[in-house]
Amino acid sequence: MSVTAAQGFTAAGIAAGIKENGNPDLALVVNEGPRLAAAGVFTSNRVKAAPVLWSEQVLRGGRVSAVVLNSGGANACTGPAGFQDTHATAEAVAGALGQSAGEVAVCSTGLIGVRLPMDKLLPGVAKAAAELSAHGGEKAAIAIKTTDTVHKTAVHEGEGWTVGGMAKGAGMLAPGLATMLVVLTTDADLDSAALDEALRAATRTTFDRADSDGCMSTNDTVLLLASGASGVTPAAESFTAAVEEVCADLARQLIRDAEGASKDIKIEVINAATEDDAVEVGRSIARNNLLKCAIHGEDPNWGRVLSAIGTTSAAFEPDRLNVAINGVWVCKSGSVGEDRELVDMRYREVHITADLAAGTETATIWTNDLTAEYVHENSAYSS
Amino acid sequence: MSVTAAQGFTAAGIAAGIKENGNPDLALVVNEGPRLAAAGVFTSNRVKAAPVLWSEQVLRGGRVSAVVLNSGGANACTGPAGFQDTHATAEAVAGALGQSAGEVAVCSTGLIGVRLPMDKLLPGVAKAAAELSAHGGEKAAIAIKTTDTVHKTAVHEGEGWTVGGMAKGAGMLAPGLATMLVVLTTDADLDSAALDEALRAATRTTFDRADSDGCMSTNDTVLLLASGASGVTPAAESFTAAVEEVCADLARQLIRDAEGASKDIKIEVINAATEDDAVEVGRSIARNNLLKCAIHGEDPNWGRVLSAIGTTSAAFEPDRLNVAINGVWVCKSGSVGEDRELVDMRYREVHITADLAAGTETATIWTNDLTAEYVHENSAYSS
């Protein structure tokens, strides 16, 4: 499954020794064609890792023959030398596969501000190239894990074509909790413009609306590669829907595996004047540490929701706001509503509905609670 | 000390029974004149508590004869009934003191979305009025505590005049961690316009730049009352400097007592193109949960600082950024700088310097680390 569910792709995942604990840390995904169309979206952080700067250039050409991904180091804030490391990695892949380095995308994830051990990474590229297989998707997905507790894959079967993918990290494209990397593949016969359109539509409502901890990564990358191997050209709507389904699935898996989280929180903003308003309000609620702590404590503290809404520039009147938590309208007309004791918060998934009473637009943002485990994991991360 | 350090003020702090644990929960500060000049700044949250809506109206007149403050309930998101409770509280104070309710400011702090127990609050007003004293400042400061572990007061002695004050909460004016309330008093002979100018200048660089957890309160209020009792009219610059000194002192006390914090983090942004850029970058760093966790773990994780800077719209080039942690330039030219092992993070205060290399402006933001204790305190708060 994973990136090799679609025809025309091979992949591998190996331990190159980048991670000191010997876990798998290098993945290779190769588009065997006949087509080499590709599209990508990248972090909007202005401090971009070397592989992001490189891959943005590669994607400008709309063709990707291979993607090499390493965990164990983000190669971010590593200066010109770090960029040379990325370039050398792409050259090594190109050399091993007999392709052009200008069509090799590179993704890295791990600690910021540390050079990659190229003496381990480059031999790893050769080793991964030797292990490429049409069944290698699962191993590739495993090799890109960092703090992930499980690897993440998803597949959609279309009529004669397939979209599959893998993801690592927990968070959002922009911002991102940890470094989020996603590679999607399809055997649909589509050009890079069609892929780009589908990918942007899909990420806008999925990865872009998963906000685990409000922190934007330097490395976030989502790539979509098409081999054309099925010979089928699906209709734009059904292809976009398929990509969106796979992205939504992977985004949910990222949230479910977010560092230290004990609750997955679905924030649905309804009756907004504009979709932008709905997204702004959803994000503001998703990033409120006090609310995230309250949800962790299974406390339906709707006052935190109103406080968060109040910091936005969205259209609303404070005395018309309504908030439901797990279906109970605990806040009505900006004031006390149904009995908060009615809210059942025992389950992992928590559903917050914020009714702005200002229009007809809606947006859904996913986030997590804030836990002592998150603090522990992130206070001990690089030491 | 506290609000009674300046001549012409009396205060009291009593237990009215609003808090179930019987701790002091009601404070009264009275301006005995001869002048009743006042200025105030309030939360910029659009969801404002009833006492904020009320006090904003009162302050428009530039005269405040008394301030009544309660802990044990924020009276926020309580609808028209909550506003009537605030009005009734002001009337009770006015009745007890023989003054006009339109000159009585009201402040509340505690849980959002809960009505105040007026059957306890109103008798408490009479009790507090009976205990008013020129030495009551300390008791008033104690009565406004919520999750504060210590009460906070500060005094500046001018030449023949005094500025004193008290504060509760831990966080910022806008945003605020918890409900932040501050009452400052002076016996300087100044009108409300002069007070307003000094107060805005002082809060802009003090309370507005303390960002404990990025959450903006519905109740934040800072009031400055002048009695004119000293008969001295200080020069504008020296008076503003005095108010700023008292505000800075109280703001530091708020940060030092922030919920669950183990580190006070001073973020100095230097060489910014504009002061706004410096503040935006400082706030972005201050609100980065991953960095706050890293500092908690005494990990000089400068990559988190760069990631946070990268999310702003400030003028900078990624490869010209420099970051020092406790004086060690761990990031130079956007890449690895001095050895991170040189950074000594054993002490409570941590100093981060972010050099944008884009101009000459500067700003300092204070924040705290993110700890398991913060999560614990805020996940158990209202349950």
Explain briefly what this protein structure is:
The structure is a homodimer of 383-residue chains. Chain A is built from ten helices and 15 strands. Chain A is of the alpha+beta class.
Task: Give an overview in words.
Two copies of one chain form a homodimer. In chain A, 31% of the residues lie in helices and 23% in strands. Chain A is built from ten helices and 15 strands. Chain A has helices at residues 50-60, 79-97, 118-130, 137-143, 192-204, 236-256, 275-286, 289-296, 302-309, 372-379; strands at 9-14, 26-31, 37-42, 66-70, 104-108, 152-157, 162-168, 181-186, 221-226, 264-272, 322-325, 328-332, 335-336, 349-355, 361-368. In chain A, the strands form three sheets. The first copy, chain A, has a six-stranded mixed beta sheet with strand order 13-12-11-14-10-15. Chain A has a five-stranded mixed beta sheet with strand order 3-9-8-7-6, sandwiched between helices. In chain A, helix 2 (79-97) runs parallel beside helix 3 (118-130). Chain A is globular. The interface between A and B is large, with 67 and 67 residues.
